[in-house]
Amino acid sequence: MTELDAAMNGTIEEVVRDWKKDIRKLDVEAFSVQIKLYQINLISSRIYNRIADEFSLSDVDVSVLMIIRRERADRPVRPSDLWRALHMRPSAITYRVDRLYELGLVERIPDENDRRSLFLKLTPEGLRVVHDIVLRFNKVTVESLAAAAGYGCDISGLDRQLDALLKAWSGAEIQG
Question: Where does 59-127 sit in CATH, by number?
């Protein structure tokens, strides 16, 4: 998807007003929320990518590391888990895993029950890198939330409202 900065040519309010002129049935309040959520996602993605880039990684590389990091002892991560979770082709996941292996961030462990299969595990360096990336992004989030609180945002209330939005949007995703 192209990263379209909604406020590139003015404020979000101006963008919404312009769209309302062309689409009379447009629900302005809903469209404003939609654009603001998109804009927050765009900005946070840019920050996330900048942090990942400091480690010569892409956002997809970091997502792979994070999924592997969440492995459970009763079910280690397989490459097939990655392509299902990330909705990517197996060849794209193989490329990512090979790259992370070459960087020393991931190790491949043969499956004792199936010679054709393998499990993925973070190396100590991989664990350090993914933790460092998460902590750096978390620091930006903490600072941004503190700034939002300074503008009068109720962070606890926002968290509850975001939970409600996630539930509502998850239902839309299933139906959509």
Answer: 1.10.10.10
Residue 104's region, left for phi above 0, alpha for psi from -120 to 50, else beta, is left
What does the domain layout of the chain look like in residue ranges? 1-54, 59-127
Q: Under 8 Å CB-to-CB from 51, ≥6 apart: which residues?
A: 133, 136, 137, 140
Tokens standing for 56?
Answer: 């010569």
- Express each pLDDT in 151-175 by its tens digit: 999 999 999 999 999 999 887 666 6
48, 62 Cβ separation under 8 angstroms: yes
DSSP code per residue over 112-174 = TTEEEEEEEEE-HHHHHHHHHHHHHHHHHHHHHHHHHHHTT--HHHHHHHHHHHHHHHHHHHH
